[in-house]
Structures are given as structure tokens and as C-alpha cells.
Amino acid sequence: MNALEAKSRLEVPERTPRLEVLVVDDSPVCRKIFEQILPQDTYEVSYACTGGEAMQLFAEKSPSIVITDWIMPDFSGLELCRRIRADKTKSYTYVMVMTSNQQENGVVDAMEAGADDFLMKPFNLNEMLARIGGGRRIIELHRKLEDKSAELEEVASTDALTGLPNRRAIEEWANKQLRGAKRHGFPLWVVLGDLDCFKEINDTFGHEAGDTVLRTFADTLRRLTRISDMCGRLFGDEFLIVISHVSATNIEVAINRFRELFGSLSFPFAGQSVKVSATFGVAGCESGEIKDFNLLVRKADKMLYEAKRAGRNCVFIAKMD
Fold first, then answer.
1. Element holding 211 (H helix, E strand)
2. Distance between CA 101 and CA 103 in Å, rounded?
3. Whole-angstrom Cα distance, residue 238 to residue 279?
4. Most buried of 13, 21, 146, 321 (most Cβ within 10 A)?
5. CA distances from residue 55 to 47, 135, 236, 293 in whole angstroms, order as listed
6. CB neighbours of 266 closer than 8 A, spacing ≥ 6?
């Protein structure tokens, strides 16, 4: 069977996305074969002659399939497999190893190095195309699993009512920020916000009205929170904001902006124009020396409690330097 006949047997639906393939072989003849048999509307193919070139292209293009010769001028195809598998930052790559030498335990060695498939040269074109098709199916399955895993992770990290991050997501993000604050010495603040007399809203106008207030408060926080900061819902009517790179003299101004904007809104419940206020407790550190996120949350919660006792609809701050 010639190359054109082999190519015709790998036709795929027109809408199938092109797959990145990296062929690593210092033989011009071998590279020419792949150039002829892999359909351009199905595969985006790159070529490398050495392991070093292959790793550079792998970093740039993140190919889904790598087809590599065993023997190369600098390091072996098995070493290339090991380096690809050592990179945990990329999605799964399907790796095929080819060789023209009858290495003893060749298949075993290739698989132990991280290869998914092994093929002797000269290879049958039909068999090569079938194996590439099998690799494509495995890659597509991996991508679907990755997408589903990302969806589940998002669901597990998101508050269903407001769409804001939940406590788990906030803690993970805040702990990274704490490490950054300690390393670079920038200010970091934890803010607890609580809706005033929220139970009365639910009792008077129903839980649907309460949900509307919660979503509106969440939207207000989201709109005024910078990309470098984070806001989320802890539970009930209590929300948390993590703010960095704001001085102690400006943090109260920033939180009052949240409070005043939300307090200016009106809710049309049962023919009435209802206003709802919010109270905030703040704890933070300007020098970045605080290491414990939960300690900041406890201090902010104490400030929130004192602000509630002082009459609500205000901001209390505990500076922790």
C-alpha cells in the first residue's frame, strides 16, 4: 500500500478538531512518510531531529501525540519519554516509540520509560495509522475526563446561590496570598460582611426575597472587588473578602464603598421599597507577617460582632501589626 492509499484510510469527520502531533526522527525519509500520510485537515504536525529540539517544541506546542525514534543524536527516545512524563504542567500526551533495532526487552523498556505504544521499523502504514487513531481516541477520552474533573472542581468550589467562591476556595486562595504577603511584605486584609436583620427579610417577605438580597449583595461585592482580590460566601448571610495591597489608612474607605453602595439599593418586596444594610469586621496586617488565615478570620469575626453591638451598618477594623 502506498502513502496516498494509507492517507485515505484515516479520513475523519469534517468538524473533528486538528490534533497537535510531534514526530521526532533524524531520518528525512521517515519524516517525509509522516508528512504524506497524516491529513493536514486532521493533524497539525511538527518535526524534530533531536531530543533537545523535541523538548523545545513540546514546551511551545503541547502536542497531544509524540511519535519518537528510539535512537537520536543527543539522547534516546526513552529519555524523551521520561522528560515528557516528568512535566506535570501539561495535559496527558500519548507517546509512541519507534525503533529499527531488535532491542531485547524493547517493549518493556519503552513502557517503563512512559511510552504508550511501541512499533518496529519499517512499519506498516496501515498499522501506524491505526495506532495513531487509537492514540487520538485515548487523548480525546483524557480531555473529556479533564473537562469533567474541572467542572466538578468548580462545583465543589462555588456557592450555588450566588456563584461566588465558597469557603474552601477562599481558604485555598487566601493561603497563597498569605505566603505572597510574607515573601514580599505587602498588606493583606480579611473582611467579614454580614447583612443586618436578614432573618426579618426571610420572615416578612419569604425566602425567595432573602435569596434576592443575597444575590444582590454578592453582585455588589463582585462588582467592587479588584481582580487581584477575592470575595466569597461563607454561609447564610455572611460573606468574606480578601484584599491585598491596600494600606491601613485606605482599607476603611474601601470597605465603606461596599457598605454605602449596597445600602443605597432598594428592593421592591410586597409593594414596599425595602432597604437592607450590612456590617463589616476587618482584620489584617500591613507588613505581611500574619501566617494563619484562620486567625485573621477570627479577628475579623470579633470586629464584626463588636460592630453589630455598636449599632450595625458600620465598619470595625483590627490592625494586627
1. helix 207-224
2. 6
3. 10
4. 21
5. 11, 20, 51, 40
6. 273, 274, 275
Closest CA to 275 of 191, 194, 199, 201: 201
The CATH number, out of the four listed (3.90.950.20, 1.20.58.2050, 3.30.565.10, 3.40.50.2300), of the domain defined by the range 3-154: 3.40.50.2300
Superfamily of domain 167-319: Reverse transcriptase/Diguanylate cyclase domain (3.30.70.270)
What Å distances lie between residue 66 and 20, 75, 98, CA to CA?
A: 9, 16, 11
Break the chain into its structural domains and give their ranges. Answer: 3-154, 167-319
The torsion angle over the Cα atoms of residues 189, 192, 196 and 200, rounded to 10 degrees, is 160
pLDDT in tens, 242-279: 999 998 889 999 999 999 999 999 999 999 999 999 99
How does pLDDT run across 35-61, given as a tens digit for each residue? 888 888 888 999 999 999 999 999 999
Greatest Cα pair distance in the chain: 87
Determine how many CB atoms are found less than 10 A away from the CB of residue 3. 15
Alpha helix stretches (DSSP H) within 15-96? 28-37, 51-61, 77-86
CA 238 to each of CA 11, 193, 209, 295: distance values in angstroms, whole numbers, following the listed order: 57, 6, 16, 17
Q: Which of 195, 207, 205 is nearest to 238 (CA)?
A: 195
- CB of 95 closer than 8 Å to CB of 66: yes
